Amino acid sequence: MKSRNNLMIVVGVVLAVLGAAFAVLYVRGDEAVATQTRAVVVVTRAVPAGTPAASVPFAVRKVDVKAVPSDALTSTATLNGQVALHALSPNQVVTPSMFGVQGSAATGGVVLPKGKKGVGVELAFAPGGLRYVVPGDRIDVLASEKQGDGKAKTTVLLRNVFVIATTPGAGTGAATAAQAGPGTLHFLLAVDEAQTVKIVNAQHAGRALYFALAATGKG
């Protein structure tokens, strides 16, 4: 009888342990389901088109991953100097295409910053920044030319130039991420008249142009 009682006690302890283990696994499973969210930037109230990004009420909130676009922003740092291109709704997840540079629309729908012209530049894969240069970035433009002694002379041609659009990408100038692979790259840069002349003269003189990503800033 004593042995039977001991067996029952052991069985009871085993069942209790298994029950606790299943309870822990169940709770963890619920937690896993509950944490399928992503922290992204959202708009907290309605915003009309043309509102500067600096005046938009942003917040970083956890949103169900099923409702988060693949290019959703996790920071507003890239929106400096830009405006809302269309009206935004409360709790709307923010993507790069919702904002652009304030200015006037040119043929083809490209928005030019006030007082700037758009000049196109074609560069090879490496000189063009390996396709890591995307719209909204600022770059320094370097010009290099070979000297008679076989050496090269390189100078900074322009500083802190705003990139309006790039291709290839989506083919619309709205690429927002680096594109893998080699190939010729095209850029539309926001420059004034003097800067336009510098770029054209450098290219006609056979000087090789290179782009260097610059720190984000206004100018």
Enumerate how many helices there are, as a single number: 2
First-to-last CA distance: 91 Å
What strand order characterises the main sheet?
7-10-9-8-11
Beta-strand percent range: 25-35%
What is this structure's SSE topology?
Blueprint: H1 2-34, E1 37-43, E2 58-64, E3 82-84, E4 99-101, E5 103-105, E6 111-113, E7 117-123, E8 138-146, E9 152-167, E10 185-191, H2 193-204, E11 208-213
What does this structure look like?
This protein has 219 residues and is an alpha+beta fold. It has two domains: 37-101, Antifreeze-like/N-acetylneuraminic acid synthase C-terminal domain (Type Iii Antifreeze Protein Isoform Hplc 12); 105-213, no CATH class. The protein contains two helices and eleven strands. The protein has helices spanning 2-34, 193-204, and strands at residues 37-43, 58-64, 82-84, 99-101, 103-105, 111-113, 117-123, 138-146, 152-167, 185-191, 208-213. A five-stranded antiparallel sheet has the order 7-10-9-8-11. Strands 1-2 form a two-stranded antiparallel sheet. Strand 8 and strand 9 form a beta hairpin. The termini are far apart. The model is unreliable at 169-181 (pLDDT under 50).
